[in-house]
Structures are given as C-alpha cells and as structure tokens.
Amino acid sequence: MKMKNMKWMLVTVAAAGLMALPSQAQWQIPADPAAKKEYVAKLLATAQKTDAPLIERFAACRELSVVGDKSAVPVLAALLPDEKMSHMARYGLEPIPGPAVDAALRDALGKLKGKLLAGVINSIGVRRDAKAVEPLAKLLADADANVVCAAAASLGKIGNVAAASVLEKALAGASGANLNVIADGCIRAADALLAAGKRDKATALYDCVRAAKAPRHIRMAAMRGAILARGPAGVTMLMEQVKGDDNAMFAVAMRLAHEMRDAKLTQALAAEVGKLAPEKQVVVLQALGDRKDTATVPAVLAAAKAGPSNVRVAAIRALPQIGCPSCLASLVTMASDADAEVAAAAQAALAGFPGKEADGTIANLMSAPDAKTRCTAIDLVGQRRVVSAMPALLKAAEDADKQVSTASFKVLGDMAGAAEIPAMIALLSKTQSSGAENALSAVCARQGEPAAGSVVIKKAVYGALPDGPLAEVTKKAAELVKSGVVTLEASNGNFGDPAPKKPKKLCVDYIVNGVAASKTVAENETITFTSVTVSPACVDALCGAMAQAPVPAKQALLRILRSAGGPKALTAVRAAMTDANAEIKDTATRVLCDWTTAEAADEQLALAKTSPNKTYKVLALRGYIRAIGDANLDAAKRQAMCKEATALIQGDAEKRLLLSALSNAGGADSLAMVMSHLDNPAIKDEACLAAAAISERLVASNPTVVAEAMKKVVKATKNEGILRRARKALGQTRPKPAAK
Questions:
Q1: What is the three-class DSSP state of 450?
Q2: Whether 287 and 208 share a structural domain
Q3: What are the tens digits of pLDDT across the range 194-228?
C-alpha cells in the first residue's frame, strides 16, 4: 500500500471512531496478575487480527511495549515479515526483557530482506545483543546499502571486543559508502570500549579509523577518541594537532583542552602559545583561561603585554578567569594602553577580577605616582563598589591633578553615604568645585530614596472621606509596606469596602526616612511613599555649614538644600535671601523660585506679583506653576493656585507648564482645569494630551467625568497618538456586557 493511501486510511479510521483500544496516555494496566494476563492476551489477539483496522493493531503493539512479556514474543515476531506491521512489531518487542526477544530477532535475520531486514538489525543494536555479532558480521558484505549501514551501526552499539574486531576487519577492505558507515560503527564501538575501561582496544580501533580514508568528520571523532583513550599520554598527540596545519584537527585538540584537566597539558599549552600563529594563539589563550591554572600566568601575561591586538585582548580576558592577583598591576597599566581595544579589555578585566585581594590592590593603586593610573584605579573602585576605599577616595578628591579630583568626586557621588556627608561638605568648602557640589548633591538626594523598612505608617483610613462611612486600615497598610511595597493602591482589594457604591478615598499619615508626610488619594489611585526631603541629619549638616562657608561654597550649599527640601532647608534659603552679599542673595532667590514642592508657593507667588526684577518674576511664576503639580495639595488649594497663576500667565510657555503640572497632579479637579484650555489653538494638543493622561488614571474611579472629557478631546484633536489614548479611556468608561 502506498504511504499516501495508508495515511488516508488511518485518518478515516480514527475519524470513524474505530479505535477501540485506549491511547498511550490512557493506559490502565491491571494490577491483578490474572487480569493482566487476560489484558495481554486481548492485545495479542488484536495485533495479529489481519482484518482489524491498522490503527487498532498499532495501538496494541504500542501497549505491548509496556505490558508485554515472553508470551508476546512469538506473536510479535510473526509480524516482522509483514510490511505494514513490522515496524510496530519491533516497537513492541524492543522493550520486552529476556533472551526470547533476542533469539526471535536473530532468527528473523535469515528470513528478511531490504528495509524489513535493516529494521530488525536496528532493533538488535538497540538491545545490544552480543550473540548477534557473528550473523551481523556476515551482513556487512550485503549488497543492500541500508542493510550494511544498519549492521555497522548495530555492531557499534553492541560495542564489545568481538564486535570491534569484526568492524576493524571490515574497515580494512571497505570502500565508498560502506567505508563511511563502517568507520562510523568503529567509532561507536571504540567509544563503548573506552567507557568500559578497555583503553588499549579502544585506542587501536580509533587509530584504525584515523588511518582510513574516511570523511573528515569521522576522522576528527577518531582523533578525539584516540587522544582521550591514551589518557596522559594523549597530551603529546593533542599538541601535535595544535602545532599542525590541519585546522579541523586543531579544533578537535582545543575542544579537548577544555575537557582534559591534565597538568602536563596545561604546561604544554602555555609553553607553545607564544610560538603559534595569532589566530591559534587566541583560541589557546581562551583554553588557558578556562583551565584556571596560575602556573600559566607568565605565558598569558606575556601575550597580553605585546603582540597583535586580538591576541592581547584574548590574553587579558583570560587573566581574571585564572584569577592571580600578581597580574593586577600589569592590567592597570594596560588599562591606559594606546590601543583602545586593549585598554577596554583591561578595564573590563579589572572590573570583574575576583577576590577581596583585588579590591585592596586596586585601592592601593589610587596612590600611584602616575595620575593616569590613579584615575583608572578610582574608576575601577567605583565599578567594583569598593566601600573600604572611601577614605582614599576622599583624599583623592583633593588631588592636585584635576582629572584625578574629578574622577574621585564622580565615584563619591555614586558610592558615598550619610557617614561621608560632613567630609564632603568640608571638601566643598575647600575645593569650591562643581564636582564637589554634584557629588554632595547626589549623596544627599540618595538619602531621601524610599527603601524597605524606611517607611513608617502612622495612620491610614479608607472610605467615603471626610464624612461618610470609613475604616481605619493602619495595620493593613503597615503590613503591605513591611512586605516591601512602596506604592500603595487605594482599592477595595487592599482594604475591603467600608462604603459600598460610594466614591472612596485613602488618607495616610506616614514617615519616610524620618520625615513626616500625609497624602490623600481617590479610589484606584496610588500613594508612592517618597520623601520630599532628605534625612534631618543631612539637612542639619548642610545648614550648619552655611555660616562659615565661603561665598561659592555657600551658593552650592543653597542649591543642594533645594534638592534636599523640607521646612528647615527652606528656612535657611529664606534667610539667605536677605544676605548682604548680592551673589548669595541672588542664588537664594533663584533656589526658592525653583523649590520642588508647594511649601514655597506663597513666596513664589509674592515674587511673581511684586518683584521689581523681571527675571525673578518669570522664574517665580514658573516655580509656582510647577508647585501646582504637588501631589500633596488638596483640590481646593490647587484650584486656588491655578486661579492665581492664570491671572499672571502671559505666554503660552507658562500655560504649557501649567498643563504639565496638572497632568502630573491628576484628579478630577485637575482634569476640569485642563479642559478649560481646549479652546486655545496654540496649546490645544498639549491640553488634550494632559486630559488623556489624567483620564487614564481617573477612569476607574470617575468614569462619568472621564467619558465627558474624552468625547471633547476626540473632537478637538487630530493627533493620532492622543486620539488612541482618548478612545481607549473612553472605551473603559462603558459598562461591560453581562456574562452569559
């Protein structure tokens, strides 16, 4: 039967529901021996029933591969000559334990031809039947190439001394396609002998294949086996391939260099690496790095210091793998190499060099006489986060070389903590450099970052605030924060529903890093526990240094206080606004105009209204507008501030700033203010964008307001991006259809 017709028949049978036997996934083997025997008998009856659908017979053979015993052997063996059933019969026979199966398969060798014979031979190989070596040996001379191929492969799988001898003899007289399959069988047999500990026999067989005119890939496998079978004595053969001209055999040798851990091989590779062509040196150096033997450091270091760029880079990359600290000084020198690739590789090697000893060595290099070396060492200290080098970094910040000082301040800004703030303030006063200011500002800003355990919930209530039903949820909020949450959602999922069918709010009083704060948000909005100021100790240190600081340093401290924020910092800025020194007064005024929260809003508004300095008026108004976006403002205060700002705004630039602030603030009140600007052609799209952004956050808690706003936005804008967002928000306001 043609394969197409057979496939059609199988599909038809399955579609007709004729498969009476369970699938493999549904096997239910009876536990009772008698029941199991009866079950096997039914399977055997189905398997040999010539008028049964093939799919049922196949299923029976498949199940017999699991439940079959010696009683199944005669039935399945009788099916081996059947072109349709032979494969599934072998499928059932192969897993059945006992010599009866082997005898049946050997008996079939003399009765079959072609593909059916090749199939039985393959099954013999799967079972590794040692008694089949002699009959399989005869089949190596068969006229059918498929039979020869199967016989060679099965002899290789059997892999005993007798099978190896047969294959070795056949290899000597083989040619053409037969040579290839017999050589492959030899490799299989040699591998089996080697695994069984018969090294001499395996070595001899590998060598026979190496000498044969087999394809390169087979000779490569033979070379690999021959080296491994020789054990320590194989190092010489491996090195011959390393030195030779055959790139394929070189590849085999280098693969083995990653597998064999013989110390003699390490020594031989290290001794030879400098004599090889550059492309080979790269591969050998990679192997030496993988071997992690410190004895190879001199050879690897020599390759790293001189030679072609690709070789030097490979050697440098191997050094941290080996991990010998004695090469660190050389790596630091190479980190400043004129060759950019070499320098980059050395810097990467130093950054990833293992061990605390490397930390100490790199830190010590910060006092090297060469400024370039000091800069490199400082950069590496930062990459490796060597906290123990903090005193050396503070000292390097005063280095006479500007590049060294700048590098040190950069790393201090990344790594220093609260303990270093006093010393960094002193450095700022002494150096009066922008690097010192930037570093101190970065350190102070980091003190205000929220972290697990730094948030303390004092009180939390959730419900229809301020006068409706509510619940105290302090304990629940504290539990969420303790688990690591820094963004808390006002939702029934978190706190239950104390006021069903009513708009709810969450009000939380909390402390972040020692700074008290309070926030109220609508249902489905979130509170992120970020501190608007750095820790009080940090602010105290900054304010305490103001009195004695020289003018440039005092100006820098004022700018840092702006980043720090908080009442005490603002008080210091206000005081500086009346300073007798014009430069300090100017800096303080600009800092107040740029204050990051609404605490300074009253002063900003006063300056925007009454200052005789036009620059201050503009800066103050812009600062006041930014303050409108402060999430801590309640709706009434924000509306009042918007009214004040609108009266002072003269240009579209300030209007855009107002829209941005309202967008950041969110809430229904902000949305209403934004919508009032839709009729201004100059800023219409900015207003639409802000409205869409607010609506995305508001839609769950106030869908009616959002729907009305988004309908207007869709009509007002032609911007595709804004339209997509507006339509999506509008779609979310529509009630979902009830589930059927």
A1: coil
A2: no
A3: 999 999 999 999 999 999 999 999 999 999 999 99
